[in-house]
Amino acid sequence: MRVLFSLLAASFFFSSGYACFAQDPEKSAVDTSNMGGQASFWVNLNHRSDLPVITGGRYIPSVNYGKKFRTNTMLDFEASANVFGSFAFHPFDSSSSDGAIKPYRLWARYSSEQFELRLGLQKISFGSASILRPLMWFDQIDPRDPLNLTDGVWGLLGRYYFLNNTNIWFWGLYGNSGKRGFEIVPVNKRIPEFGGRIQVPVPLGEAAFSYHYRTADNRGIIIFGEQMYEKIPEDRFGFDAKWDLITGVWLEGSWTRKRKNVGSFTNQEIVNAGIDYTFVLGSGLYAAYEHLLLSYDAKPFRFAEATSFSLLTVSYNISLFDKISAIVYYNWTNKTSYNFISWQKQLNRIVFYFMGYMNPVDYQLPAQTASKNSFSGNGIQIMLVYNH
Q: Is the Cβ–Cβ distance between 314 and 289 less than 8 Å?
């Protein structure tokens, strides 16, 4: 089905593009195109790991093409790939390797000043929270990753923007697999997902309500001593709001409800409250604090066995080319902290990162399983990124 989406996106683009070229020249404008890429290389050193040295590389080539018309509409296309490999080893003892080549983005979009319709493999992200994001429904961005990489989802996304800053989203997804964000079971990729979102202005800010329907694939999960249902319909409701007061203040929450009884996994509630401010210190010291509450319950909103996280992040621009930042997580339930610091150096198209971390070996940060092996324990990571 992913191949079908790719063919649909490509055919939509090329067939529409052919029609565009055949139109009266007075009704069309010039084409735009761009080819580029990002190459990155890293070394991770962690003496407490079974494989204390991890080296790797990644290349993301991309191509963009767009055609703008005099009717203030545009048809554009993006295609990119994710080519990566890593090699981990214990000197003179053992080793492990991994790598893959897969599509990263592949979509076609038709848009105007107030509307867009995008089809294919794409990133869908929204919400008011900064890092601990309950509305991380379709992506899995780790804030400690300087590249902010996340796999896309296959589907159709439409958005309309009203003149009063109200905007409406709708989406339909199909053919996706795996777990995203705070999910503990994957989606059934053979059943379509769909949902929508409406965001409206409020005094001193904005607020939004989101909904998503999917069918969870619970095979492999044992509840009450029995194998779970393969197909469990699931409703997901989200709310977020942000206000620009003396400081930035936000509230974001997600409630996931399964339509079958699966014990304590029937309901999932996630709530985040945060605040940020830029202090007048030198070039400006940015700081943000967030608190997250995560609970799984047989009945909704009981919060009987909730897990509580706090997060503090700060960043400071030392110069036009140097930036230092730090993130500290604290798990109030397990009394554990996760610490991360990064220095970024910009050299034209080359960016250098030096990162250090001090974390528990038993890594239990929510919604960041992709970084579990890289940032568990204590260590350093050096990364070089080249953009062209």
A: no
Q: Which of 261, 269, 174 lies closest to 221 in space, CA to CA?
A: 261
Q: Is 59 exposed, middle or buried (0-12, 13-18, 19+ CB in 10 A)?
A: middle
Q: Helices in the chain by DSSP H: which ranges?
A: 2-21, 372-375
Report the distance separating Cα 313 and Cα 327, nearest Å: 4
Contacts of residue 8, defined as CB under 8 A and 6 or more positions apart, other chains included, come to 119, 120
pTM (predicted TM-score): 0.86
Integer Cα distance of 171 and 198 in angstroms: 12
Percent of all residues in the chain with a pLDDT value above 70, rounded to a whole number: 87
Residues in Cβ contact with 177 at an 8 Å cutoff, skipping those fewer than 6 apart = 186, 187, 189
The DSSP letter of residue 360 is -
- Answer for the pair 94, 178: CB distance below 8 angstroms, yes or no: no
Q: What is the mean pLDDT of residues 205-234?
A: 79
Query: How does 138-154 read in b/e, with b if 16+ C-beta sit within 10 Å?
Result: bbbbbbbbbbebbbbbb
Distance from C-alpha of 318 to C-alpha of 344, rounded to nearest angstrom: 10
pLDDT tens digits along 162-199 = 999 999 999 999 999 888 889 888 899 899 999 999 99
> Are the C-beta atoms of 296 and 304 separated by less than 8 Å?
no
Whether the Cβ atoms of residue 140 and residue 150 lie closer than 8 Å to each other: yes
Q: For residues 316-332, b (16+ Cβ closer than 10 Å) or e, as one string?
A: bbeeeeebebbbebbbe
